[in-house]
């Protein structure tokens, strides 16, 4: 791993309030780690977290989903999106990606975990989960799955409008394509693989870059949040895989967009705000994860 990448991430960890925010996130995650409900039933808890995470993440794409409906589909095995309305198909795709993340985490408390595939393969695999139904329906070329968009493919719309990147001075700049896009995407993969860098910063940068760069033809926001969950767990920031990290943003989408815009600005204040926001998401997600663990321990999953 390039020392330049690690040095840059270390510098972000020294921005105002970031170290303290990381401490808050770790404290909340540690409390969740020792929840009594995760002693023997952590697999059930992760399964429920995949459901709640899917519902939360699609809410940020403008899709309102019912967790009970998704639980019923999962329980019956009716998780193929073929023939379903677009919103329902998207929920199932998001759930599939969250389950995939869970499969990559390894056993809770175990010393062994699945070997980490190269960063590019991890991202491509999750993007495939999120877009396979579009390929099957003929709405997306198979060649666009897991590969940065080409010069003739428009940048996908997202939480920031207009759909452009921002220079460090806050002025709009054209969305990158071609060589520039590939270079920036390679930088994202380098951050994803920077195991020795501060965990909260890695989560925030990977999430922020994928959500604002939007390197693929579609599915970028969902992908950014799924990858962020993966990095949060594998980095040790949130070691259980039970925290529902997207619950915080789903409850206040405007605050999520504001924090993401701060990251996109490239200013120290904006990036620091985004990283502190990520820590708040871990704290809120851990609280939701504790609710999951309590429900599972009681033999139920739906909120009381």
From TrEMBL:
This is Oxidoreductase. InterPro entries: Fido (IPR003812), Fido-like_dom_sf (IPR036597). Residues 143-175 are annotated as: Disordered. PROSITE patterns: FIDO (PS51459). It comes from the Bacteria. SUPFAM superfamilies: Fic-like. It comes from Georgenia daeguensis. Residues 118-280 form the Fido domain.
